[in-house]
Structure formats: structure tokens, C-alpha cells
Amino acid sequence: MTNKLRFNFPEIKLYWIVIAVYCGIITYYDRYIGIFSIALLIYLIYYNSRVMMYKNNDFLIDLKNLSIDMDEITKQTMLNFPVAFCIINNAGKIQWNNSKMALALSNDNLIDMDISDILDVDLAKKLSENTEVFFEYKDYVINDKHYKIQVIDVSKKQKIKKYAVYFFDINEEFNIWEQYNNIKPVITFIQVDNFDEVLNSSADDFKPLLEADIERRIRYWLERKDGIFTKLSKDKYFCIFHEPMLKVAEEEKFNVLDDLREIEMSNTIPVTLSIGVSTYEKSLMNTYKNAISALDMALGRGGDQAVCKLHERTIFYGGKTKSVEKRTRVRARIVGRSMRDLFEKADNILIMGHTYPDLDSLGSCMGVYSIAQVLNKEAKVVLEKSNKSIETLFDKIKKTEGYENIFITHNEADLLINENTVLVVVDTHKASISEYPQLVEKIDNIMMIDHHRRGMEFLEKANLIYHETYVSSASEMVTELIQYVEDDAKIDTITAEALLAGITLDTKNFAFKTGVRTFEAAAFLRKNGADPIEVKKLFQGDYESFLLRANCIQNAKIIEEKVAISSYGKKVANPSLTASQIADELLNIRGVQASFVIIEGLNDVIQVSARSLEKINVQIIMEMLGGGGHIDMAATQIKNSTLEEVITMVEEAVEKYFEEENN
Fold first, then answer.
1. Which residues are CB-neighbours of 288 under 8 A, at least 6 positions away?
2. 71 to 63, 89, 102: CA distances (angstroms)
3. Cα–Cα distance, 547 to 539 (Å, whole number)
4. 354: pLDDT confidence band, cut at 50, 70 and 90?
5. What gap in Å lies between CA 393 and CA 399, rounded to an integer?
6. Which of the 8 DSSP states describes residue 326?
7. How many Å apart are CA 386 and CA 380, to the nearest integer?
8. Is-contact 370 491, C-beta < 8 A?
9. Exposed, middle or buried: residue 56 (CB in 10 Å: 0-12, 13-18, 19+)?
10. Is there a domain that residue 323 lies in?
């Protein structure tokens, strides 16, 4: 060490060399003076080396003392470090910990303890899998305290790995965040469904009392949520309360829905609510818009339910009753006139239903086509190919004079698009399951006609939306529009029969969701030449289909004493139609209130069709499996699962539904 430090400065060596050169020159000219100079130089070198040696020794002593002091300082710093931490090996065993760590865990004997026993995490496995020298758990609770845990590799390049595990106390930050969440606003809209119809169903003497009782119960429920609210109109309320109160409402499953449904003041139509709720999203304006959207979704799903948009999730509560039919045709009349205006500005009209169309989808397409014909507009129905459920009607249409070229493929549709093209989407409000989803992106002028309960996805892009969930079918909706687009409008027989077939399919021969307006629509179609016998022929199946249905009915099992579940072990060509027909048949069994039929198609997609007598909401059950529909008629399609797995999924969804209902 001394040798290393003695001539550590290059400029000193340079000075000695220069002096030695001068001494050599002096000796050359004067021998005696030169010898004296050399002797003096040797002495100076000796003296300098002695001084440097002593200084180096002092430096080493100081350095050693400093090292000892630093070790003590480091040790004390680590022991008294304000953050709890420990050193572990690659097996997760604690090698050392500071006092803060022992205090945080209320344990003074942490040495050799497995860190996984403390964190309830296999940290050794995590360390072996992690190639990074740093990773963390942002919120971990130990002894009711919140910590951010960071694991850092402190072994550098040594063979034996060691890691420092830091426990940063974030309890204060967590409490601040919790306080912030507790004061975040929640915006809520409440609307009484079919308010006028409910009042009109009550005796005149009870109408003021009924209206007052509705308002009293809503106000009482809102006051208990410690919010501020105002009545926007006779049937609509606006409210703001804090987020913890929303959790209370969720725990109560929005019991205000049940409370109002129990009102009986001579009203024959039950009082139901639609509630739209949104938690705070970036700004009050965004929250307000989300709440409006949630209310629209609740109304679009048939009312009598609450739709909560909770940050990135949407949760539904209620939906126990069917939609109430509106006797007035004001909405149909307004939409009919708007539809006429939209069509008159169009160069051409493209019409499509949902993928794998049924008779209601095809029938409503035919109805819209007839409206275009009445207005002398060029129109085409986009349909890539037929399927077994519509092939009889499809072939009949193509053989009818004037309808030979009504259907076009996807590629042909692309060639007809221009800036004035109008697209009409019928029998679905989801672009993703329409006949040709890309068409929605390519066309700006869009009209949507649908009767299904609204799901998460909705065709918001549409300029004109006619969405009524209480209507039996899209064919019924289009039939009414025909009568308002043009006074005394007439349609030909093939269109009338297609529309009547659509209504017949979705009402199950006028048994389900059949209102006064349904029969009026059927009467209009009968007047325009629809033959019930010809319509019945469209529903005829082959012998193999009857055997398949008989087999499924025979193998059905009853769960919860009122739900029939059946399946078929082989793949079939038309699972959607077959499953729906079997589900309808199962409802004929005494005591069965809902039925589920599971059948696999040739494309390995499993179809689940659900039907009910309205006491059980099969829409909610099917939504658990990614599907949807109506309270009494719903379905879903499941990919990448076996038939047995789907049967189990359906049974579990049914059990979950009844558990939630009982709670």
C-alpha cells in the first residue's frame, strides 16, 4: 500500500528528474558543486520518502478508523432505517432484518423464517422466474396496514444471491385515497316506466294518490342515501350522492325496484323503475353522460332494473318483469315519417339482419324492402347465404316474380356504396352480429330497427333508431312502419307472409309477448294477402328433426323443480332453430317454468337456447354466459368448450340466479 501511495503524483517524479538533469549539468562544469548538489538531491529524496511514509501510515490509520466508523454508521442506519426491510437469500429465508421490520410484524424472531409465510406469496418461485433485479407489490396488507413491497437484488454479480425486501408504509396514502373515494360523486337518473300507462290503469280517484305514493317512495329511498336530488319531470328524477352510498344500494340490490312494484292502488299495471347510475369518471360531464347512457340501457332492456356503470364494469340489478305494451302508436308514426325522409334523400338502400338469420330477421328485411319499393327507391337485401331455418321462405322469395335479384352478397354490397347510401339494420342492435359488420363502418346513414333488450354493445352510430323492447318482433315493428310511411300503403302477398312468419316465430304462434298491436299488425298482413296455411308450411321440419326433438325431450332433466335442461350428444346442421324449438316444447311440461337446450353445431359452436314463462328471467341467466335476449326468450353461443362443460356452465348459472333471487 505504501509503495502504491509514495510516488502517487506524477508531477513529483518529473521534478526529481529535472533536478537530477540540472545536477548532472552542474557536475559537468564544476565537479565539487555538482557532487554537493547530487548529495543534497539524495538527501531530499530520502527525506521526502520518510515524510510520505509517515503520511501514508497516518492515512491508512485514518482510513481504517473511518471504515470502522462507516461500518458502525451503516449498521446503525440499517437497524434504525425508517422503512421496514430485511435481507433474504434466493430460497426466501430471512438472513437479517431491521428493528422496524420486527415492529411491523410484531415478531422479534424473524431470522431464518421463510418470507413466504409472512407475505402469503411464493416469493422464492417469483425470484426464480423473475429475470429483473427489481419488482414490487403495490398494495399488500399486513396486520391491517397497507404496504408497498419492493424486492431488489443487492448481490450484484456475486454467485450467492441476496435480496433486500422493503416494506414501505402507505397507510396514510391509502387513507387519503379512501377519503377521496368516499367523497367521489355518483350521478343517478331514475325514471318511472310507462308512467302514463300506469296512471291510466288506475281508477280516477286513486290517480293523485298513486302519483304521490310513487314520488314519496322514491324520495324516501334517495334521502336514505344522503344525497341531493331534484324532480326533473313527472316521471324522472336526478340525484347525486357519494360512492359509499352506492355500495349500500348495491348491497340492498336496489330494493326500491321491489318497493315500487308492490304499490297497489287499483292500478292493473305494476309500477316499475329504470335507474341509470355512474360513478365518477374523469369529469362531471363524463359522469353525467355515463349516467344518461346507463338509463338508456335500462330502458332499452325493458325497464324495471338498475344499470350501474362502475368505472370499467357495468352491473345490472332487477329486470324481473316483462315490458308493458304501449297502446299508442305515436312513436311508430314519428319514426315512420322520419324513415320516409331518410329514404327520399337516399340514392339506394341496403338492408340486412343478423348473422344466421331467422324468419323474423328475413321477414323484417322484406318489409323494409317493400317500403323502399313504395317510395320508388332501389333497395337490396344483403345476405351471403341461406340457412335451414329460412331456406323454404328464401327459395320461395327468389322464385317470386320481381324478387329474383333482391339478395346480394357482401362483395356486391360493397360495389353499391356511395355517400348517399342508406343502411337499415333489422332485428339486432349489435353491429358485431349483423350480417355484414363491416358495412356499418362503411356507411354513414344508418337506421336500426330492433325489439331485443339492450346489451352492452349498441349501434350508437345509427342516425335513426327504432328500439322498442315490448314489441313481439322486428316484423311487427316494420309492419306498423309500412302503414305510416305512406298513407294506404299496400304490400304484396310474399312480403305479407314473410312478415307474418316473423311475428309467428317470435310469438310462438301468438302465445308469447302478444299484445293488441300484435294482432292489429297480423290483421293488416292478413288483409294484404298473407295466408296462415302458407305461413305454417314455412315451419314444417323433416322427419329427422322430429326424432331429434323427441330424443332431447326424453333426455331432459329437471333442476330446482321448475327448470328443464336438455342436450343432444351429436352435432347438428341447424343448432339455433333446433334448440329453440325444443326449448319451446319443454315448456309444455307441467311445472316447468324455464327451459334450456344445449346443442352443438357442425362448426363446433355450441348453441344454448332458453325459454321461460316470464317468472324466471332467462335473459339474466344467458348474460352470465355472454348472451342475451328477453325475459322469456334468450340465447347464447359458446366456443372452445365441450358439450359437457357448457351443460355444467348452464346449471351453475341457473343455481347462481336462484341464489341471488332468494337473497
1. 187, 278
2. 12, 22, 22
3. 16
4. very high
5. 10
6. P
7. 15
8. yes
9. middle
10. no
List pLDDT tens digits, range 388-402: 889 999 999 999 999
Count of structural domains, the chain: 5
Distance CA 628, CA 269 (A): 25
Classify residue 301: in a domain, yes or no.
yes
Rounded to whole angstroms, how far apart are CA atoms 9 and 6?
A: 8
What CATH number is given to the structural domain containing 203? 3.30.70.270
Final residue in a domain of this structure, among 144, 177, 210:
177
Q: What is the dihedral of CA 73, 79, 85, 86, to 10 degrees?
A: 90
Q: What 3-state class would DSSP assign to 407? A: strand
CA angle 97, 99, 104 (to 5 degrees): 90
The grid cell for 492 is 304484396
Three-state DSSP class for 350? strand
Same domain membership, residue 506 and residue 445 = yes
CA distance 339 to 636: 32
The verdict on 404 and 517 lying in the same domain is: yes
Contact 170, 243 (CB under 8 A): no
Q: What is the pTM of this model?
A: 0.67
Closest CA to 144 of 106, 100, 92: 106
| CB 424, CB 342: distance < 8 Å | no
418 and 493 in a single domain? The answer is yes
What whole-number distance in Å separates Cα of residue 623 and Cα of residue 627? 5
**Residue 619 shares a structural domain with residue 549:** yes
Confidence at residue 76, expressed as pLDDT on a 0 to 100 scale:
66
State whether 429 and 338 are in the same domain.
yes
Closest CA to 101 of 33, 166, 53, 47: 166
34: exposed, middle or buried (Cβ count in 10 Å: 0-12, 13-18, 19+): middle
Domain of 136, in residue numbers: 84-177
How would you classify residue 283: left for phi > 0, otherwise alpha for psi between -120 and 50, otherwise beta?
A: beta
Residue with cell 308469447: 512
Alpha carbons 441 and 233: distance in angstroms, whole number = 37
DSSP 8-state secondary structure symbol assigned to residue 454: P
Strand, helix or coil for residue 354? strand
Q: Where are the alpha helices (H) located in 7-98, listed in sequence order?
A: 10-29, 31-79
Summarize pLDDT for 74-119 with one digit per residue, the tens: 666 666 778 888 888 878 888 888 888 888 887 888 888 888 877 7
Q: Are residues 478 and 609 in the same domain?
A: no
Q: State which of 78, 93, 119 marks the end of a domain.
A: 78
pLDDT of residue 72: 61
**484, 380: one domain:** yes
Question: Hey, what's the cell of 457?
Answer: 354493445
Cell triple for 117: 409465510
> What's the CATH number where 447 sits?
3.90.1640.10
Q: Contact at 8 Å (CB) between 206 and 265?
A: yes
The answer on 354 and 210 residing in a single domain is: no
Q: Which of 364, 373, 404, 398 is nearest to 501 (CA)?
A: 364
